[in-house]
Amino acid sequence: MAHVTFKGNPMTLPGTEVKVGDKAPDFKVLANDLSEVTLADSKGKVRLISVVPSLDTGVCSTQTNKFNSEAASMGDNVEILTISNDLPFAQKRWCGANEVDAVRTLSDHRDLSFGEAYGVTMKELRLLARSIFVVDANDIVTYVEYVPEGTDHPDYEKAIEAVKQAASN
């Protein structure tokens, strides 16, 4: 199990820690139009899964905007998913207000399916722990970062490099 804190407080992350080389666990989350989305829906593409506690906070907003601005350089075979427990309506509003159109925001609020499958649900807050996963076109996890302190930024450059490497294979 990964160990993370949020504002210095230790968080409990039920579930299994995902590691490089693992087959990516499937999940069921909601798109902004309330349709269900699974990992299989983007099969054959490289997926950058950016996990944030809430889009309406500074670091989460920066993280999502960063990947949105980098999307064009990642190629057509890459899909960027940002997953949080924000309601789909709030995600849609946030994307419109921030002109985010290259990242697909998805909500795990209903079932915590993603959070449990990837071991990122902070039990004490019912929010997702900041993390990054890169999944290749064959559904193998090629990069993982569980950010140790939830209010810190992930390593953007390493994540982007991992996506580019997976896309070139």
Automatic annotation (TrEMBL):
The active site is at residue 60. It holds the Pfam family Redoxin. It catalyses: a hydroperoxide + [thioredoxin]-dithiol = an alcohol + [thioredoxin]-disulfide + H2O. It is an enzyme of class 1 (oxidoreductase). Gene3D superfamilies: Glutaredoxin (3.40.30.10). GO terms for molecular function: thioredoxin peroxidase activity. Its EC number is 1.11.1.24. Belongs to the peroxiredoxin family. Tpx subfamily. Thiol-specific peroxidase that catalyzes the reduction of hydrogen peroxide and organic hydroperoxides to water and alcohols, respectively. Plays a role in cell protection against oxidative stress by detoxifying peroxides. Homodimer. This is Thiol peroxidase. The gene is tpx.
